[in-house]
Structure formats: structure tokens, C-alpha cells
Amino acid sequence: MSYTTNLQHIVFGTKHRKPTINMHNSKALYSFIWSMLQKRKCRLYRIGGIEDHVHMVVDVHPKIAVADLVQDIKSYSSQWMKKSMLFPAFEAWCEGYYAESKDPSDKEGIIQYVKNQVEHHKGEAFLDELKRFYSIRGASWHDKELY
Hints:
This protein is an alpha+beta fold. The chain contains five helices and four strands, in the order βαββαβααα.
């Protein structure tokens, strides 16, 4: 018997960081994404966000590459959002995304972070949040990441 864990904190935003995720209908979007993850045998621990981006805490199935998973989520959810008419201002997701593998012992902390996105972003803009993530990890920030 084998056991693996690939806990990921995944973040992606709307094109040009426009506030096009209608928060009144965000639960429908989150349910759509959750069903995609279930079909791919990934475990969603938490999903949340605000009008211009989504955070997820996901245990990614070992046979799935994170890049492929995010590409599928963004592609299919974009099509669904436009077709559903629940998000009339939505144009597209940004080109890039942020993903960071997390130690399973950090799971509860990152779940709480995602759970508190609305409150968190009263004090920090999405762009500033991402730049902070990159800086903490010693990564170079490129503005094209969110366009």
C-alpha cells in the first residue's frame, strides 16, 4: 500500500485583476471547481477568495501535475462562468497562477488563511499579497503573472 500527500496552496486571479467574481454567486463557482477536483481524485480542504481571485488548499492526486490541474480548472471554470451567466462581467482568468506545496502540519493554518480572505483583503490588495508570497520565498516577481 502506498500513501502520498501533495498539499498545495493554489491562487489565481481574474484577467487584469478586475473584480469580476460576483460574490453573491461565488459558492456556485466554488462548487463547480470542487466537482472538478473530485473527478480528478484531488481533495479540496478549503476554497475562498474575493472579487478578483481564488485561493484553494488542495491535496493533489499523485498522478496529476499541478500545472495541468490549474490549467484545467481555469479553462473549464472560465467556460462555465461565461455560459452560466452568473458572472456577467467575467472575461477570463489571468495567464499565471501561484502554487506552493505546504507541509501537512501547516494545513490548518493555511485553511484558516483561505477562510478569512474577505477580512484579510480589507487590509491588503491581491497584488500586494502575491508580491509578498514571492518575496518570502525568494522568487522574482513578474507583472505578467497576473495578466
